[in-house]
Amino acid sequence: MKLSALFLLFLVPLTEAGSTGYFTPEHRVSGIGVARDDISAELLNARTDLMIQAQTFGIMREPLAVPGAKRITGDPKLQSIFKEAAQKSHLPSTLIEAIAYLESWGDAKAESVTGPKGIMQISGATARSMGLKVVQATRYKVTRERVPVKSKSKKTIYKTVTHRTPYTVTVRDDRLVPARAVPAAAVYLAGMEQKFGGRDWAVFAYHCGQGCVAEMMDLTRHARGIPKDDVTVPRMFFSCSPAWNRELYQAIQQQMQRDYSPTYYFRIMRAEQLLALYRKDPAAFQALSREYRSDFVTNTRAPHRLSVWLKRDDLVYRTCDDIRLDSAKRLVKALDRPDYLGYQLRLSPDQPADLEYYSEASASAVGTLMYVAYETRRLFDEMHPHGEHFQPLPVTSLVTPADHTTAAGKEQMMHCSGHVFDIDYAGLPPAEQEALRFVLDDLGWDGFLGFVEDSFDSIHIGCAPTERDFFAKVFQEASGQKTE
To answer: Which domains are present in the chain?
Structure first.
């Protein structure tokens, strides 16, 4: 019920008339793109809650999500350790559990290829600062080899040569002992909370590092529109764009490309909620896990949100005849008014006569396209890029029959649903490409849509099933239909 209330708050229609000369929907998502500027406390809280909920995909798609929750909450020894750590650090045991859950799924022997080890995934340098012992010793591998040598009489004889090759072994590593590692990590986290003045920054620092967080805090303090008494991780994340607070935006982008650490706080908050759900109702937790399994990728985790949102039953358009029979039912014509709507159709069916049918998609897909184009153009205009002009987004695919897409691979099969469209961004000006990616990320982080690269210059995009009604209303607005 809480989430529903947040959606109502977040999707309040804005009724002021647009004077831009291009399509301006009344149904909008608050705080997206340009509208991030001077974001209110109420809207920030709404966006933060939506962002936390959207982390469910990244957690629950993992095969170890269920066994990890069982291990974290059900192992009596671990529970005793978490409680001890909470007493020493004065932090909630649920927070410490959430970090252990996301870092290792509760596996005491977990090892990262980048170096961190143990249930709390602690690096060697951080372990020493925590007071944990990581003791290594030098050992030698002895090998013998017979080599030919010349004797005094110049005859070849063989001599045995011994080689001693040094190597390092770990004789003690407290990171692999939960009873030592968990309390030390908790105390370390509490120390960072005192140092940075907020638990959110401490959690961020656990993943990103203290130097990283010090830099990000400084950029946030000096950013435009952020109250001096509200320098928080959510403010940092939601108070910048390519148009303003650009230095902060670029710093966040750099960290996102490195390890997605700016989202770590939101992931930990969601992990804490999910573990609470497992405690209360394991069956509901397992049911949620099944919801995040893909119908198309069954041997590993779901690669992206679209592979979870779309089901096999959605792939109903097997041939062009299927599309013809469905016209004006589940499918609608994509309006082709580039200057007004901000996109242009560049569809290329095998048979030119099929162009009419390839120009269709679900109302929600077309509405999503219209909304992405609207927000992209609005942000691009705000950026005022020198010497660049907005180009309508090239749409290269809408609905496509299965008999055409089968040979193109699994990603193309999504178009048989009518819920996915493609944008080819290769020829767009650099600033417009940046604006487009920011808008997709912004809507994606809060769970409104999903997208995946199809190639080096094309993106598959589709809205969340829960948002189809909203984006269908955007289409209805653009086509002059009444909306409720």
So the answer is: 112-177 (no CATH), 300-478 (3.30.1380)
